[in-house]
Amino acid sequence: MFKEAYWIKPHYDYKDVCPVFIRKFDVKARVKKAVLCISAMGVYEAEINGKRVGNFIMAPGWTSYHKRHQYQEYDVTDLILFDENKDQTENEITVNVGKGWYRGRLVTYGFTDCYGGVTAMIAQLTVTYEDGSHTVIPTDNRWESAESAVRFSEIYDGEIYDATFSEQNRKKTPRFHAPKTQLIPQEGEFVTEHEHIRPVRMFKTPKGETVIDFGQNITGYVSFDICAKKGDRLCYSHAEILDGDGNFYTENLRSAKQMIVYICKEGRQSYKPHHTFMGFRYIRLEEFPPNISADDFEAIAVYSNMKRTGHFKCSNEKVNKLYSNIIWSQKDNFLDVPTDCPQRDERLGWTADAQVFGRAAMYNFDVRRFFSKWLNDLSTDQYPNGTVPYIVPDVLDGSEEATSAAYGDAAVIIPWEMYRIYGDKKILERQIDSMIAWVEYMHGYGEEEYLWLGHTQLGDWLHLDRLDNPDEIRRRDDFIASAYFAHSTYILSKALEIIGRPNEKYVSLHDNITKAFKRRFCEYYSQTECTLALAFNLTDDREQTAAQLAGLIQKNNGALSTGFLATSYLLTVLSENGYNNIAYSLLLKESYPSWLYSVNLGATTIWEHWDGINENGEFWSAKMNSFNHYSFGSIAAWMYETVLGIKLNGEKNGRLNIRISPMPNQRLDWAEGSVKTDLGEVFVRWENSCGKTKYNIRIPAAAQVNIGGKIQELSKGEYEF
Question: Fewest C-beta in 10 Å: which of 179, 426, 552, 704?
């Protein structure tokens, strides 16, 4: 691919202005097929004869560009013009390129040009005629560049668009000497537009500001259609929440501006941003022409084009709202990479966040292509010593020691969960070297061969336990690190067995880690420690550990105190070890800290903090307080696997295994849901009526079904119990 094309750049540095690349070409006969292959150092929008090429937003997506740079292939046959009354017909291709992740600022001020300081593009248009001949239009010195109407565009800060600008001063494009070896075909899902959301109200805040509320916290942008005079300005900023007084709140965005500035032309006009996206529910109109109304605006959700596979609902509408919030947080944060949040000056692929939410994500949507592409970047950014960075793609100025338990473990856990959910061992075969490298990194760290001690750790992020003693913090961190060391080693041993490779070394290593762990950590002091000991099978007395966990919850006024890591396992280990009633109590709890606490405060997505808004109405913090953060949405996996009882597990032969084992509770009148698999849809409904529980189950293939402790092997079909 791109045999005749090379990278081209603007004839000079346009600074903040987005360049447009232009190439006119002639079509000499009726076209059978036309294909455009294209990529950019930055993000691009291409048009042929004034019509957009494809529907990929923020193309070519975000990868570890130095080694893996995606290109896209589009069928553009319908966009090519040919007039049979002429010998040849002139066509034009234009490509507008913004800074994107390649050149734009990431993380904070001053952190720009992470991958390079030049905006460039490469393309090759192949036109095949009905007579079998063809024409190739590659990027070369016949292309021109000019300034565009996009005067500024950054991911965090928004966009400035001048509709009055007229293109001028086209100049020939010079070659940009860069390799083509890193170019790879599209791997992940396209990022596309999805829900179009109309405003629910337009109002004045107590400060007198004009604000539009779209009713749902989303990732995307706002489009508008207005009448205006030339030179009028329409400026608006974005926010995801109002403060306690009902005013527009942007402090949690930190340095991100999330602002659109549009300079109007004369008459009716429409616009939507080109090279940026925002996380928001509200927009504040800073400047606007007269006679603007809410009807002029529309919010558009933008995220990776994942197929929905999971559904859940029950008799409790607040739980249904929680589930909806989980789905929205996944959509909003699965924009080519699994981001921690879509609004502040971050929006990075934190590995632990993706790992703890991964299993829930795989039930909710088909994310095979999404995670497969991201795992390729994880392997690429993995250091030679096996270290997995905190974020992928890695743009932090880290080192070979810049990692932590649960973060690096994404290299092992996510491929494993993909195998379990989808039953395809190819992901294990592809990622196995990365998995081994991470386990060996933990194995080789420090003086204790079978424990991971002394490394700087991030712990159970955002837990609520009081840890005032430095020794207590260190112990907790060492406990978590060594627990994950054991867990990932166990997974690795099983993965090697599944793909037919020797695993004795890691079976033995896991055995030794487990023994060393039990010797050193023979007592547990927190909900986190009890949960991980149970989840990773590191306790000699499961009954006692589960009872201790239940006791710690009771002592904490029936509330959890776990952070990102342990919360993903908490309800599961309670249900599996005789405390299903407590698990449901945590689900249904409405006071802080709980999932329904945010629901009662009007949340439409999952909060980063249990107390993103305090009980007194004040915000937790302005520095790190996202209201669209999927990590605590990991409870969705329990909703599928325990409430509904739908459990998907891969087998040695790489075939999907379906198990049905619902665990109802009398505090829900009914629950139902489904998961689409490659074998077909699995459906479960149960209903409590007159002291009895009725079940309706539909399975697309043979499955093991456990109803009230009675286990049956059932064939494809629909059953009632």
Answer: 179
Q: Is 45 a catalytic residue?
A: no
- C-alpha 698/C-alpha 674 separation (Å) is 9
Q: Which amino acid is at 660?
A: I
CATH architecture of 192-304: Sandwich (2.60)
Closest CA to 394 of 111, 587, 714: 111
For the domain made up of 656-720, the CATH class stated in words is: mainly beta
The set of residues, in sequence order, having a beta carbon less than 8 Å from that of 172 and lying 6+ positions away, is: 11, 141, 142, 143, 144
- Give CA 207 to chain center in angstroms: 35
Using DSSP's 3-state secondary structure scheme, residue 238 falls into strand
Distance CA 613, CA 428 (A): 41
pLDDT in tens, 390-410: 999 999 877 888 999 999 999
pLDDT (0 to 100) of residue 653: 65
Second CATH level (architecture) for the domain 307-643: Alpha/alpha barrel (1.50)
Q: Which homologous superfamily does the CATH classification assign to the domain defined by 19-148+171-186?
A: Galactose-binding domain-like (2.60.120.260)
Do the two domains 19-148+171-186 and 192-304 of this chain adopt the same fold? yes
Task: Calculate ∠ Cα 38-273-262, nearest 5°.
Answer: 135
pTM of the model: 0.97
- The 8-class DSSP code of residue 501 comes to -
pLDDT tens, residue by residue, 594-640? 999 999 999 999 999 999 999 888 898 888 899 999 999 999 999 99
Count CA atoms within 13 Å of residue 695 on its CB side. Answer: 21
Catalytic residue, chosen from 154, 346, 417, 576, is 346
Which one of the listed residues 154, 576, 608, 641 is annotated catalytic? Answer: 608
Quickly list DSSP for 594-656. SHHHHHHTT-SS--SSTTSB-TTS-BS-SSS--S---GGGGHHHHIIIIIS-EEEEE-TTS-E
Q: 3-class DSSP state for residue 267? A: strand
**Of all residues in the chain, what percent carry a pLDDT higher than 70?**
100
